[in-house]
Amino acid sequence: MLTVFLATFTIFILVIFGMSLGVIVKRKTLQGSCGGIAALGMDKVCNCPEPCDARKKRIAKAERQAKLQQNRIL
């Protein structure tokens, strides 16, 4: 019985290692198969009408950076 358990455990570890190695080699991010919250018709996780202060700051910072990037002379 212990032999079967160890063999099964070893096979599972090898499969997990192989899958993680494939993700590392391809350098792709992990993605869900169902489309995530966008498939549910939600724009964000909390689905609240007004974003919190921290999110507003991040949005403003991203907009400033995009504007600076646009105004750069190449």
Helices, strands, pairings?
Elements (H helix, E strand, L loop, with lengths): L1 H25 L26 H19 L3
Percent range for β-strand residues: under 5%
Distance between the termini: 69 Å
Could you say which overall geometry the principal axes of the C-alpha atoms support?
elongated
Quickly give the structural class: mainly alpha
Give the helix proportion (percent range).
55-70%
The total of beta strands comes to: 0
Backbone CA Rg: 22 Å
Mean pLDDT: 81
**Can you write the helix and strand succession as a string?**
HH
Give a short account of the largest sheet: none
* Helix count from the secondary structure assignment: 2
pLDDT < 50 stretches: none
Q: What distinguishing features does this structure have?
A:
2 helices, mainly alpha, 74 residues
Describe the structure.
By secondary structure, this protein is mainly α. The protein is built from two helices and no strands. The termini are far apart. The mean pLDDT is 81.
In short:
The protein is mainly alpha-helical. The protein is built from two helices and no strands.
